[in-house]
Amino acid sequence: MACNRADYLERTIESVLKYQSSVASKFPLFISQLQHLDFEEVHPERPGELIAYYKIARHYKWALDELFIKHNFSRVIILEDDMEIAPDFFEYFEAAANLLDNDKTILAVSSWNDNGQVQFVHDPRALYRSDFFPGLGWMLTKSVWEELSPKWPKAYWDDWMRLKEIHGDRQFIRPEVCRTYNFGEHGSSFGQFFNQYLKPIKMNDIDVDWNSMDLSYLKEDKFLKHFAKMVSDAKPVYGFDAVLKAYNIDGDVRIQYNDQADFERIARQFGIFEEWKDGIPRTAYKGVVVFRYQTPRRIFLVGPDSLMELGIER
């Protein structure tokens, strides 16, 4: 998906072609240029809104309609013109395609982790389910697009995807270590979050043999038990100074937060994303946000209802 950043697009295409040549028959490459479609006047719904977000949403709908309806693809991976991809990008999505096809509780598969900064990740093979749509390099199926296309929003399509009324009880697959790197400091969002959250992202740089890995643990019923055990096994830490206490504990740690303000306070101390959308923190599953801290141990920030949703006794 491209607009008016020729230098960015060139960098993205070079990155894709570097790893696409061996799988080109499976992964044909399409480039969609917004300017060529920009022929209708845009009318923002609220004063002062950026027209760019309306044009972007319109572009996404047009391009995905073309690929799914006109070209009849069963799945599409979406990149934007400010991304580089990891060496195992295509193998990762090929392995995840089987999950996406057979588990209807998965809405999409993403290559991105919002808390994927180098200090918060460790295992390039670890994957999670999330209630929060990550975007930034993601795959969806034709059947999902046929559901989304008729009600596609006029603007802010990514936040729209994060609404509970849109994703319902379905989740997204995301990696611990990102398979894309977003270098887009200059764009429609004016570099928001870039230096703090995007620039330090760790993109996977090793080959992972995804074909030999059993990803069945990511199916809804299995993952709930798998994730619940990790959370249950983590040592609970309490008190306003929980972050300081966690620093001095070996092994995985879980810290309870009481509400959004409490989560933001704890997240700020660790340096992870504080943002929520429609009641869900970025990367969260059942209200739990997990990241590495002084690797390889994990920190689980656990919501007020998370233990109950995971079936863990208090």
What is the overall silhouette? globular
* Rg estimate, integer Å: 20 Å
Which structural class should the secondary elements be placed in?
alpha/beta
CATH topology of the largest domain: Spore Coat Polysaccharide Biosynthesis Protein SpsA, Chain A
Distance between the termini: 47 Å
| Helical coverage, percent range | 25-40%
Spell the H/E element sequence: HHEEHEEEHHHEEHHEHEHEEEEH
User: What portion of residues belong to β-strands?
Assistant: 15-25%
Low-confidence stretches: none
Task: Give a count of the beta strands, DSSP E runs of length 2 or more.
Answer: 13
Order of strands in the sheet with most strands:
1-5-3-6-4
According to CATH, what is the class of the largest domain? Alpha Beta
Number of helices: 11
CATH architecture of the largest domain: Alpha-Beta Complex
Biggest sheet architecture: 5 strands, mixed
Mean pLDDT score, rounded?
A: 93
**What number of structural domains do the residues give?**
2
Concise summary:
Its main location: Golgi. With about 325 residues, this protein is of the alpha/beta class.
Fold and architecture overview:
By secondary structure, this protein is of the alpha/beta class. The protein folds into two domains: 207 residues, Spore Coat Polysaccharide Biosynthesis Protein SpsA, Chain A, CATH 3.90.550.10; 92 residues, 2,3-Dihydroxybiphenyl 1,2-Dioxygenase, domain 1 (Roll). The protein has eleven helices and 13 strands. The strands form four sheets. Strands 1-5-3-6-4 form a five-stranded mixed β-sheet, sandwiched between helices. A four-stranded mixed β-sheet has the order 8-9-13-12. The longest helix has 20 residues. The protein is globular, with a radius of gyration of 20 Å. The mean pLDDT is 93.
